[in-house]
Amino acid sequence: MRIKTVIAAVLIMLVPLIGSAAAAKTEVDLVWSMKNGVNELTTSAEIGLSDSLVLQLGIRTQGKMENNEQQVFSADRFGLTYQGEHITVFGGAVPRSIGQARIHQIFLRESGPAFSNLGYRFSREAVSYTKFFGDLSQDEGYKRLGVHYLNWRPIPNLSLGIGEAFVVSQPFKGDTYYYFVPILPYYVAKYFPGIATSIDNAFFYGDGELRLGPLALYGELLVNEFPMSPFDHNPKLYAITLGLESEFPASGWNLLAEFSHVTDQAYSNGRPQNVFTYGDLSLGHALGDDLTAADLQLSKYFGTLETTAEVGVYYLKLGSTDPAPWIGQEEPVIPEQIYGVKLGLERQFDQFRLAFDLELGYIRNDGHQADATGYRTTAVLTGSWRLP
Fold first, then answer.
1. Confidence class of residue 232 from pLDDT cuts 50, 70 and 90?
2. Which pLDDT band holds residue 75 (cuts at 50, 70, 90)?
3. Which pLDDT does position 358 carry in this prediction?
4. How confident is the model over 111-151, as pLDDT tens digits?
5. CB of 362 closer than 8 Å to CB of 317
6. b/e for 332-366, b at 16 or more Cβ within 10 A?
7. Confidence (pTM)
8. Which helix (H) or strand (E) holds 69?
9. Distance of CA 355 to the CA centre of its chain
């Protein structure tokens, strides 16, 4: 039985949990993004079927200016989430996210691909544990994803998380236990039942956040492979994001600074079926791998206008960002370097939020051609309605 059928069956079984409770709140989001002539319009909704059950729906269309032949429509998401007192059960084709990064999430971001998945989360006091598995296969291929993540707050101002993820390209004996049993590490599968190294790709993940008054320090680290000693010749395959947020109550300004680095092949593997992708879309950083990014932003709420304004600068260094090719399978390229500015405005009305974000960037080595120059523009218009 295909995993999509199992997930659909679980979603149907969740429906009776609606009960007779009054419908909870519903939120509808409309996002229109324009990037160098390419337009993308996404409409999504979270519909409160009850106080404990939420239905998630979404559609997406993409097209290019003055080229109606490239118009594409697709279902963006469909899923259900049941929220109990200490347990959450979720499933469907919905993006999943973990981590602390505000801008450069290095694994499972909210804007990521909506692949079929099914999982649960236990939450009690200072500890939460999440585990889910997903179907990354397309057409007739076989590609499964397993993720689990433990978060602990030893004190109110400190959050620590550790997780593990693996992609497998063949079924193996006992795989259902690894997908569902809490805490059971995927790495143990290499010993029990003893799966071949060639059929999986696994990494470890950690994150943390420390709040010191108005200052917040946070970070994420993903390690696919790393030399364990100076004498080892393993490649350094990792991704890291470090950041800080600070509030300045006297002036009303907030500061956000973030740095991220993803090595080439950080999400890749010698076997193409084991790469952390869904089709051509990265499950890691939104831009892929082989990149360095830095952002500095200031924001402030202006009470007289009831508007939040944001201004910032950013830097990107982009190499061979396609996460699929393995070591030695692609020619080296001249990195693109982008220097840009960010501007943003957000206004909250009674039940409606309107936001506009603009990025303007100057590109050196445009198209990975030495000394070539170009420009990069991205504009995003967002509207959110919260219905009673």
1. confident
2. confident
3. 98
4. 899 999 999 999 999 999 999 999 999 876 899 999 999 99
5. no
6. eeebbbbebebebebeeeeeeeebebebebebbbb
7. 0.91
8. strand 67-83
9. 21
pLDDT, tens only, 287-320: 999 999 999 999 999 999 999 999 999 999 999 9
Query: Residue 87: what residue type?
Result: I
CA-to-CA distance for 122 and 136, rounded, in angstroms? 24
Single-letter residue type at 241: T
Closest by CA position to 323, among listed 369, 270, 280: 280
Q: For CA atoms 267, 36, 373, 316, give the dihedral sign.
A: negative
Helices (H) and strands (E) counted in the chain, each on its own, are 2, 20
Nearest 5°: CA angle at 321, between 317 and 323?
Answer: 145
Confidence of residue 18 (pLDDT cuts 50, 70, 90): very low
Q: Which domains does the chain have, with CATH numbers?
A: 1-83 (3.30.1300), 95-383 (2.40.160)
Cβ-count burial of 191 within 10 angstroms (0-12 exposed, 13-18 middle, 19+ buried)? exposed
Burial class, 151, CB count within 10 angstroms (exposed 0-12 / middle 13-18 / buried 19+) = buried
Does residue 2 carry a pLDDT above 60? Answer: no
Q: For 12-16, 219-223, 322-326, 334-338, which range has the lowest pLDDT when averaged over its residues?
A: 12-16
Residue with tokens 């998380």: 161
Sign of CA dihedral 96, 107, 34, 75: negative
∠ CA 223-293-356, nearest 5°, is 120
Question: Contact 129/183 with Cβ under 8 angstroms?
Answer: yes
